């Protein structure tokens, strides 16, 4: 067997690992421990204090600073008076984290997006796609651990998404332009 063919799985794992690190290093979430408010607007809302839930439906927009989540339905969960989970459902639901001095803009979508603060996890489920700095990451389910900054992904078990595989498009590194202005 040709040594290049034997090492192909190792090379693919290294490329995949590099792509995951690029996405993980830049992905961010709502900061539920922040003093900054989370603002929600929707066509309808139902607050159930006994269950600790707030259900918003119809063109829902959730914002904290520049971070934005849009969906058809959003459920906020509180435990002991503290917001600890956000679930968004759409066709698809969208998540946008703006560009900062250190990170590129992140634009993600999936049919379901779940942010679980206690688990330090954002999960994108069903037709999940993340765009960042020209890189694209697709899978049936993408999990981002906000504490360890690790991304894991899986394809569809039934083969309905890219023949059951995860797909990545990784752009080459670009040199910083010296002609940029601060406008």
From TrEMBL:
PANTHER family per record: LIPOPOLYSACCHARIDE EXPORT SYSTEM PROTEIN LPTA
Subunit structure, as described in the record: Component of the lipopolysaccharide transport and assembly complex.
Similarity comment: family membership: Belongs to the LptA family.
Keywords for the protein's UniProt record, in alphabetical order: Periplasm, Signal, Transport
Descriptive protein name: Lipopolysaccharide export system protein LptA
Highest taxon of source: Bacteria
One of the Pfam families matching this protein, by short name: LptD_N
The gene coding this protein: lptA
Location in or out of the cell: Periplasm
Signal peptide (residue range): 1-29
Organism of derivation: Marinobacter halodurans
Positions of region (Disordered): 153-183
Every Organic solvent tolerance-like N-terminal domain range: 39-148
Protein task: Involved in the assembly of lipopolysaccharide (LPS). Required for the translocation of LPS from the inner membrane to the outer membrane. May form a bridge between the inner membrane and the outer membrane, via interactions with LptC and LptD, thereby facilitating LPS transfer across the periplasm.
Stretches with biased composition (Polar residues): 153-163, 174-183
């Amino acid at each position: 067997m040709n040594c290049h063919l034997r090492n192909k799985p190792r090379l693919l794992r290294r490329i995949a690992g590099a792509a995951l690190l690029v996405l993980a290093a830049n992905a961010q979430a709502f900061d539920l421990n922040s003093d900054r408010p989370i603002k929600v607007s929707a066509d309808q809302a139902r607050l159930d204090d006994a269950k600790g839930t707030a259900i918003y439906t119809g063109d829902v927009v959730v914002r904290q600073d520049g971070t934005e989540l849009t969906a058809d339905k959003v459920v906020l969960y509180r435990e002991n008076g503290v917001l600890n989970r956000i679930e968004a459902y759409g066709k698809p639901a969208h998540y946008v984290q703006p560009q900062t001095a250190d990170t590129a803009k992140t634009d993600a979508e999936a049919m379901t997006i779940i942010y679980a603060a206690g688990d330090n996890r954002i999960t994108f489920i069903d037709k999940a796609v993340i765009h960042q700095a020209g890189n694209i990451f697709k899978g049936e389910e993408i999990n981002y651990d906000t504490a360890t900054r690790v991304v894991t992904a899986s394809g569809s078990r039934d083969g309905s998404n890219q023949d059951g595989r995860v797909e990545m498009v990784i752009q080459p590194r670009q040199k910083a332009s010296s002609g940029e202005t601060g406008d």
